[in-house]
Every structure is written in C-alpha cells, then in structure tokens.
Design a protein that fits this description.
- It is a single chain.
- With 581 residues, the chain is mainly alpha-helical.
- It starts with 11 loop residues before the first helix and ends in a 15-residue tail after the last helix.
- 70% of the residues lie in helices and 0% in strands.
- It is globular, with a radius of gyration of 27 Å.
- It has a domain of 81 residues: Serine Threonine Protein Phosphatase 5, Tetratricopeptide repeat, CATH 1.25.40.
- The chain contains 32 helices and no strands.
Length: 581
C-alpha cells in the first residue's frame, strides 16, 4: 500500500459550480477540437517551415510550455498563411496562454481550421477585446449575433448586458433574459441582472432577484445577496444570511470572511464595476466547463475574464488549476502567485502553490510557503490540513499529529470530518502509536463507512499486524470495489493476499496494480516478491531491478539491493512496512 497522498482541494468557485450543475439540464456546450493538421512537409518552403514549427509547437505543448507553444504555432502560421489549421492552433494557444490581444488579431485575419466552432470562439474573443478597449458598440454588435457566436451563445448572452450597460443602454441591460431551460445558466444570468439593477438604482427590483437566487442556498448567491444587504445598511440581515449558509458550509473562507467583516462593522463590499461584472459573467461558465473537463475552452474563458479584470482572484485560482491540468507548472505557479493577501482566496491559492512544489519534489519550499501563509492567515483550517499533509510527506509525523490535534480541537462539533481523523490516524500509525491510530481510523470509518482510502488503510493495517483478518480482507475487497481503478488500493489487496500466503492470488492482484501504476516502486517491489514466492524468480529479479530505476526511497532501495543479491531466502523477508516499500 502506498502512503496516503497529499491532495489539493477543489477551488471555491469550481465547487460552487459543481453544486449548481446538479440542477442543470446539461453541460455547457464546448466546441470539438479542430481537425488534425493536413500539411505536407514537401508542399513548399513556407509550408515546410510551417510544418517544422508546428512539430516544435506540439513538442512544447507536450512539455507543458503553453507560451512557447503559442509563439511557435504563431510563427508556423506566418510561415504558411494559407493553412487555416495552423492559424486555428496559433489562436487557441495564444488564448490559453493569456495573449488575448494576439488571439483576437489572429481571429480577425480570416477563418480558422475549417470548423465554425473555433471561429465562433474567435468572435467572443474579439468582443471581449472590444469591451476591454472601450469599444462597447463593437462588442454589442459581435455579441448580439447568435449565428456568429454559435456554441458560445451562452457566454455571449451573459456578457451582452454588461456591454449594453457600458454604452448606457440600461433598459436593454436590465431586461429579463430567457437564455435556455438550463437552471444554472438562468441563475448566472439572474445574478448579473440583479447586479445591474442595483447599479441602475433600482434596489427593490435587484433585491427581489438576489433573494430568489439565495433561496437555492448556493454560496455564490448567498454572498452576492449578503453584500447587497451590507451596502444598504442591513448588516444584521446579512449576518443571519451568512450564518445560515455556514451551517451547511462551515469551512468556506468567503462566508467566514463575510461574517467576520459584518461582526467587525467593516466596510461593505463595493458594487462590481461594469468591467468586473463582465469578468464574473465569464468566470461562472468557465467553472462549469472545467467541471465538465473541457479544460482548454474553460481556460480560454478565464483568460478573457482576466483581460477584463486582471485582479479577479477566483479567476486566477481556476486558471492555475486549468494550466496545471495541461502540465504547465510555470504558468500554474504564476497564476496562484497573483492572488492578493487581501483576497479570501489567498490561503487557498498559496496552498495550491505549495502543493505544486511538493509534486515536483521540493518539500522544503512547499513547507516554507505554507508556513508563511499561516503567518498571514493564522488558523485557516484548510491550510493547516495541507500543512499537516506536507509534514507527513516529509516524515515529520509527530509534528503533523500536533497540527491535526489543534485543528480537531478548534473545529469542535465540525470535527465530524472523516478525513481529519483519517489523516491523524495515518500519521499516528507512521509515528508508531498504533492504539491511537486505530482509534482515529475506526472513528473515521464510522463517519464515512464507504470511503475507499479509509477502508484501505485500516484494513491493510490489520492484515499487516495479523489482526481481524477476515474483517480486514473484506474491507480491502470493498475498497477495491469502490475504487476499481486505484492501483494503490489493489496493491493493498494483493499484498494482503501475500501476507496471508495466498501467493497465486497475490500475483493476480499485484499484476493488476502494476498495470495501473507502472512507475510505482512499491507496487513493483511487491510484485517481485509475489513472483519469487510462486517460483517465477527471473521475473522477480526483473521487477526488483525495475524498482531501482524508479527513484525509490533509501529504505526501499537497500531492501531491494539485498533481495536482488539473495532473493527472499535471506533473513530479510518479503515483509514490508505498512505504508509501502
């Protein structure tokens, strides 16, 4: 069984969008990717140069360097200007890397890719550029043409009222819209309308819309209505609204910050400017696109939102998540670093920044970032949990337990969170305090009886200790049924079979685990042990040698060295520590 992972947590705005999407009739439609490039390298000098640059651009994408890929595809398109697919690729990468002005210029140069959907996105980009440049009339013209914006019609319709308001067309900007039957889209449209009604001085109408939206109990709308109440001197009502929302989302940083602000008689949040409102109109569908794994288009919307409002914190957090999915570590860290300490997204962004360094193996830098963050935002529970997990990853188990002790005590009744007890129990086990670990793990399982990770950890611990064998094996089988694609959990089941001396069954499970996580040194080590026990010694030696190429920890490396030399007939047996290796 591998050590439990250090995990990021869902972005606030994306989490809200995911909750909202449960009432939607369908996902926001995104265009399919453009057709593959059909350019022959021998078609002429310009085409040949374009082809080479195209291949270099593809390599940059694979390496996770979006900015370099954008530059290469742009040069490729310039070298072969008659090739629309190159222009489409240059446009897409310029947009994804945040170079929206260049993306708009490429779109304006002519059709791209032979597919209307990419051209539709180009229209949306040009409309945002017009709005950003103060050319509201041009933006209205582009956004008002349903045929031109095509599959991006929802985003265009959400953006259009803000462009109309920019031009003083308040009657059109505040008119009810009927975008679709999708409840999510209607809700997002309603929030924009409420904000515009308030800005137009029609507070009673605005409140009616805000209040109706907040009845859904979604955090996004509760915050918007609460801010409205604060601005109109109704702090007591806002405080009750935030307190009610916190009963179901007690750890939400935005709600907690809003409640603290009212309690301290702080200044009410300002009404969003027209640019800020237009940016928010794009962030909401972007979050839904990311939730539906339409990463490239969702990232494009976020880049457009940031063009209108470069300081929008939730857009930077979501953009960081998106570029991380695309493998661009440098852009990910840049995005998370753009969030101001004054933002309620600051701690979340910094935790994600720390996890980026942790994934890259820089544990010291990851810990330093979180420690600095806790000085700025002390007692932020999600950040402290990340801190505890990073301490665990650095094998500082006692310190991790101390952090989790504080979190659980401070959380009080909210501590009925299975993951907190699971994390503390796992650290206690690694620190050698099994009775305390078992108590926490059992408590976590009682709270969340179908959590595959908890079933896995406690079940394997019992097997490893030779306790509750039947129950433990049943727990591991349940964990695999819940997470059938988890190589780590299947490895636990296979290793349990091994410890029970069911070697043929162990081989079967461990081969499955190794197929799912081929580069995991612990799983390959376990498979080598099982091969040895069934007489497949050549394959066992191959697996152990493979382990040494996979950057194993020092303890595992030394164990494998002995096994390669002596097999499993030496005093060092196949028995392994609980958490792997």
């Amino acid at each position: 069984m591998k050590s439990f992972p250090v995990r990021p947590f869902a972005p606030v705005s994306l989490a809200a969008a995911l909750l909202l999407s449960s009432c939607a009739t369908g996902p926001v439609t995104a265009p399919p990717p453009p057709p593959p490039l059909k350019i022959a390298p021998e078609a002429g000098n310009g085409a040949k140069d374009g082809y080479g640059l195209f291949l270099s651009g593809q390599s940059a994408v694979a390496a996770g360097d979006l900015a370099r890929a954008a530059s290469l595809f742009d040069r490729a398109s310039s070298a072969a200007p008659s090739e629309p697919f190159l222009r489409a690729k240059a446009f897409s990468m310029m947009l994804e890397s945040g170079q929206t002005q260049r993306a708009a210029a490429i779109s304006a140069a002519g059709p791209m890719g032979g597919d209307d959907t990419i051209d539709d996105l180009g229209v949306l980009v040009r409309a945002v550029e017009a709005l950003a440049d103060g050319r509201g009339r041009d933006a209205i013209g582009l956004l008002s043409d349903p045929k031109a914006v095509g599959v991006h019609g929802v985003a265009a319709a959400l953006l259009l009222p803000w462009a109309q308001a920019e031009m003083g067309e308040w009657q059109a900007a505040t008119a009810p819209t009927h975008l679709s039957a999708d409840k999510v889209v209607v809700a997002f449209s309603g929030m924009g309308r409420a904000q515009l009604l308030e800005r137009a001085g029609r507070a009673a109408e605005a409140e009616g819309v805000f209040k109706a939206l907040s009845a859904s109990h979604e955090i996004l709308f509760s915050l918007a209505y609460g801010a409205f109440l604060e601005r109109h001197g109704r702090g007591a009502e806002a405080l009750k609204l935030y307190a009610d929302a916190l009963t179901t989302s007690p750890d939400d940083p935005s709600l907690n910050q809003a409640r603290s602000r009212v309690e301290a008689h702080g200044a009410a949040p300002a009404m969003p400017s027209l640019r800020e409102g237009a940016a928010q109109a794009l962030v909401n569908p972007a979050a839904l696109l990311l939730a539906n794994r339409q990463t490239e288009v969702g990232l494009g919307y976020l880049r457009l939102a940031l063009r209108l409002d470069p300081h929008r914190a939730e857009a930077w957090v979501l953009a960081g998540e998106a570029v991380s999915m695309l493998g661009d570590t440098e852009a990910e860290r840049f995005a998370f670093s753009q969030v101001s300490p004054e933002s309620d997204s600051y701690a979340s962004a910094r935790a994600r920044l720390a996890l980026s360094y942790q994934r890259a193996g820089d544990k010291a830098q990851a810990l330093q970032i979180v420690q600095q963050t806790l000085k700025t935002t002390p007692d932020d529970l999600p950040t402290e949990v990340v801190y505890a997990e990073l301490l665990r990853d650095a094998s500082r188990f006692d310190e991790a337990v101390a952090v989790l002790d504080r979190v659980i005590v401070r959380a009080g009744p909210k501590a009925a969170d299975a993951r907190l007890y699971y994390l503390r129990g796992a650290n206690e086990e690694r620190a050698g305090r099994w009775p305390a670990a078992e108590s926490d793990l059992k408590r976590a399982l009682k709270i969340s009886p179908n959590d595959a990770e908890i079933l896995n950890y406690l079940g394997f611990a019992w097997v490893d200790r030779g306790e509750h064998m039947k129950e433990a094996l049943d727990m591991l089988q349940r964990a695999v049924a819940i997470s059938p694609e988890s190589g780590a959990i299947i490895d636990s089941l296979g290793w349990a079979r091994y410890r029970l001396k069911e070697y043929p069954a162990a081989v079967k499970e461990l081969e499955r685990a190794a197929a799912l996580e081929a580069a995991d040194p612990e799983i390959n080590d376990h498979l080598g042990d099982a091969y040895w026990r069934v007489g497949r010694k050549t394959e066992a030696l191959y697996q152990w040698r493979l382990v040494l190429t996979l950057s194993p920890e020092d303890k595992l490396r030394s164990q494998v060295d002995v096994k390669i030399r002596d097999g499993l007939d030496a005093p060092v047996s196949g028995a392994q520590p609980l958490s792997g290796g």
